[in-house]
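User: Modeling request: complex.
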Amino acid sequence: MSTVCVSDDDLVARARQGDPAAFGTLVDRHRSAVYRAALAALGSHAEAEDAAQEAFLLAYRRLNGFRGDASFKTWLLTITWHQAINRRRSMTRLLRQIVQPARDEDQDSTLEQLPAREASPEDAAARGQLHRAIRAAIRSLAPKLRDALLLAQSGEHSYAEIGAMLDVPVGTIKWRVSEARKLVKARLQERGYNHVG
Amino acid sequence: MWDDERIDAAIDETARQMTAGEPGADFRVRVMARIDVRPGRAPLWQAIAVGVAAAAMVLVAVFVRLAPDVPHVRLKPDAPYEAKPQAPLVRQPPSPVGGFGRPRQPDAPYRGATGDFVRDDDSLELPAIDLDSIAVAALAAADSIDIDPLPPTPSIAVTPLDVENEGDPR
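Assistant: Request completed. Predicted assembly structure:
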């Protein structure tokens, strides 16, 4: 039976009745949003994949507790965020960072592969340098500001969903994103990008 | 030269790249494998535990069969318990030597209908003690103490210290 036109609520109802394929469809539908939320919190692809799996597992076990007050996606993203934040705080992760400080997403090759609008190699090099500086500035932000900025720019989450995940009003999310941008620009100016502003 | 619009676009692009990515192609398979969705199917660790327990039982059975025979010792059956009739309870007379050096009297019977215990033994009443009051003599008034005045102390001459250049970092 095709599940393309079936709503999340219907799939949830079928999964509650013991239909594993229905929950599998929900996994396929929301895997990207869940994964990117976890990646925004953890900054590591391996950790994000583990956290995303844990989130779906937890959601399945708590499926009977889903009351439908919010959408299934919002409910699932909230579970994901809590799962990822717990993982971020865990001592295990801290130890892993000490032992293996290099993070797989630190590879700047992805930025170098961005479509270059500049023709000259000098412009491309300057652009790559700017992206590295921005990345460092984003990482140095306070977690609340960094989380809001990364989630807002992930392209998978609305402000309402981010507000539900972080348990703050939408207005607070917008303020945090704006503040994060200001701080990133200020740190770029400190690094010599004086024409910013 | 970096204008504001270009910087904003670069920030957006960088943040997007920091959260870009997809889980592996077999993500759904791995999630569903971790979810025990098939009813009546025990998890793998339970199957392993049952297998290990069964193997242990087989090993114990084989070990018992192969062990050398030990002569059996047959124990005598327990003797049947015969209940003996108990002697009737008899109230014993009080001990001739009491705790305070005199024979202890048996307890008096309960007489009062209102719950009061009445004893006909009044030997516990103590005789009245008749003592004279103690007369305390009044204390004599003490003489005042004379203290000689201290001799005058000579003044101490204090010379000012030379702290003109102290603490000057230069």
